[in-house]
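To: structure subgroup
Subject: Chain for Friday's discussion

All,

I'm putting the inputs and outputs inline so they're searchable in the archive.
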Amino acid sequence: MAAPSAPSARRAKAVESFKTAADCIGTIEPGHSLFAITRGQFSMIDAVLACLDQSGPSDVSLWTWTVAEYEIECLERLRNDGRVRSATLVIDHGARNKNAGLIRQWKSTFGADSVRYVVNHSKIATIRSDKFKLLLRGSMNLNFNPRFEQFDLTEGGADYDLVKQIESELPILRDNATGADVYKASRVAEAFEPEQLDFFAGIKVWAK
C-alpha cells in the first residue's frame, strides 16, 4: 500500500505544457505535486492514461458531468489488460438521459454499483495502486479542448483523502432516482439557504 506523503515532502513543480500528458506529468514519485497550464492539447482521460502507465494495476474513479464512448472504451481496454482493477464513475444525474446507453455500458464493464449520480461540474480523477495514491483535477473535461486549461496532479496527502472520503459517503442511487434523491445525496442544500436554491427549481440540466 502506498505510504501517505507529508505536504512538506512534496516536490512542487509548475510547468507550461505544449506537449503530451506524459511529457507534462514526467516521472511520478511519492509526494509528487504538479501544476500545469496547457493549451488543451490533452484531456483528463489522456492524463489518467499517462498516470496508469506508471502506476501499475489501479483502482480508478472519474468525476465528470458527461461521458463519451471513447473514454469508456479506453478504460474497458485497460480493464481487459489488467491495468484497471476497478472503476467508479461520479457523474451528473442529467447524464442519465443524454448518456443512458454509455452508462449501461460502463455498468456492464465495471459492475452495477460502479456509478454515483450527483449534481456535478467537477473534473476529478483518482488512481490508487500499490505504488501511488494519485489525485488529478483540472478545468479540462474527459475530452480535449484546444484552449487554455489548468491541470493539477498530487500524490498522497489530505486532498486525495478528502476526495476518497466523499466518494465513500455517496449513496448508490437507482437509475430512476428522483432529482430530490440526487440533491440529497450531493448535500447541496447544506451549503445554501433554501431561498437561494429556489431560483434553480425547475431548471433542466440538459437542453432538448
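Points worth raising on Friday:
Residues 9-198 form a domain with the Endonuclease; Chain A fold (CATH 3.30.870).
The CA atoms of residues 32 and 155 lie 5 Å apart.

D.
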